[in-house]
Design goal:
The chain has 12 helices and 14 strands. By secondary structure, the protein is of the alpha/beta class. The chain folds into 2 domains: about 60 residues, DNA polymerase, domain 1; about 260 residues, Aldolase class I (TIM Barrel), CATH 3.20.20. The chain has a 10-stranded mixed β-sheet, covered by helices on one side. The chain has a two-stranded parallel ribbon with strand order 1-2. The protein has a two-stranded antiparallel ribbon with strand order 7-8. α5 packs across α6. The radius of gyration is 21 Å and the shape is elongated. The model has no long low-confidence stretch (mean pLDDT about 95). The structure holds S-adenosyl-L-homocysteine and iron/sulfur cluster (SF4). The site of S-adenosyl-L-homocysteine has 16 residues, from β10 and β12.
């Protein structure tokens, strides 16, 4: 197995090179080439041939190459299909808001969590991504868009906290000056509620945003759509969420897909309000996006409004999120693993 040097920080790369008999300052040179998007070690022409040979033999430069692009006709959303070194694919989405560009990246090829409303969950799981593959998705999008990307959300394919170590490595790397230097406050991680990792994450006290996919206010309805709830019930997810807010002083977000007749009654809204009472939080309501085979319908506009009103009256911050890229299957939950494979 070759060494993934794009997942290393300066200290680690320095160690790696010196242990193998090369000068300390070479690490900085290699990182500079990586920053300049070098595609091969042979491009790194200020390195001695011996070092280039060593790297060719023992290391690799991870990439996430855009192999297909779909552009929405409804808004400025762009969906990318990224090809990885082993023939796997992941999807990512570039969104334009008035405050800049946001890229939504994947953390795994597929997902193990099996939420019934999500296309990724239905497409099975193949492997987790490395930190370097997460960074490469952002960088490839920047190059394609010809613009710097200021915001990143880990809301593409996969469950970030099922790939915890690589995700934390990614966060530390991508925010450093040796890499893309994106502000930690401009990054949001989304989880379906892997409680022990939520607590670990809070303990890191990073200024990174956290979004929790709740989608139901009681165990019975939540377990019906999200199998993870049978392992970590709502009370534990909420307790871990309160712990995160206490530790970081940051507002937490909750995602709630409104599904007609499933989780969108007045009673559901009242239960949700009681659950979140007194917490520094925001609720993002998302009329459920269409996923083939899921058999769910969006709540009506009237129900969406009624739901928001109940939350607002109870003092809970809530908004209905605008759906982006619905014509190119780029909305939440629509990304999938085997998508377009035949089309590449
Ligand atoms: N695995 C993580 C992050 C990726 S999913 C998580 O679940 O949080 C990104 C978001 O899209 C999550 O909030 C997820 O619950 C939501 N989502 C999945 N399928 C959806 C659908 N059909 N409609 C609306 N939102 C959906
Ligand atoms: Fe996985 Fe998130 Fe989809 Fe659930 S919603 S299956 S956790 S990607």
């Amino acid at each position: 197995m070759k060494t993934d040097i794009k997942s290393m920080n300066l200290v680690e790369l320095t160690d790696y090179l010196t242990v193998n008999g090369f000068e300390k300052f070479r690490a900085k040179q290699v990182l500079t080439w990586i920053k300049q998007d070098a595609r091969s070690f042979d491009d790194m022409n200020n390195l001695p041939a011996k070092l280039r040979d060593f790297l060719n033999e023992n290391a690799y430069l991870a990439s996430a190459n855009i192999v297909r692009i779909r552009r929405s006709k409804l808004d400025d959303t762009v969906k990318y299909l990224y090809g990885l070194y082993d023939g796997e694919y992941v999807e990512g989405v570039l969104m334009s808001y008035h405050h800049g560009r946001t890229v939504c990246i994947s953390t795994q090829v597929g997902c193990k969590m099996g939420c019934t409303f999500c296309a990724t969950g239905k497409s099975g799981f193949s492997r987790s991504l490395t930190a370097s593959e997460m960074i490469a998705q952002i960088r490839s999008a920047e190059i394609e868009a010809g613009e710097r990307i200021s915001n990143v959300v880990l809301m593409g394919m996969g469950e970030p906290f099922d790939n915890y170590d690589n995700v934390v490595r990614f966060l530390r790397l991508v925010t450093s000056e040796d890499s893309l230097h994106i502000g930690m406050r401009h990054i949001t991680v989304s989880t379906c509620g892997v409680v022990p990792r939520m607590k670990d994450f809070a303990d890191l006290e990073l200024q990174c945003g956290l979004s929790v996919s709740l989608h139901a206010p009681d165990d019975e309805s939540r377990s019906r759509t999200m199998p993870i709830n049978r392992r970590y019930p709502i009370s534990e997810v909420i307790e871990a969420s309160r712990y995160y807010v206490r530790k970081t002083n940051r507002r937490i977000s909750f995602e709630y897909a409104l599904i007609s007749g499933e989780n969108d009654s007045d009673q559901h809204a009242r239960r949700l309000a009681a659950l979140l009472s007194g917490m520094l939080c925001h609720v993002n309501l998302i009329p459920v996006n269409n996923v083939t085979g899921a058999g769910y319908q969006k709540s009506s506009i009237k129900r969406q409004q009624a739901f928001v009103n109940i939350l607002s009256h109870a003092g809970i911050n809530a908004t209905v999120r605008r759906t982006l890229g619905s014509d190119i299957e780029a909305s939440c939950g629509q990304l999938k693993r085997n998508f377009m494979k035949g089309d590449v």
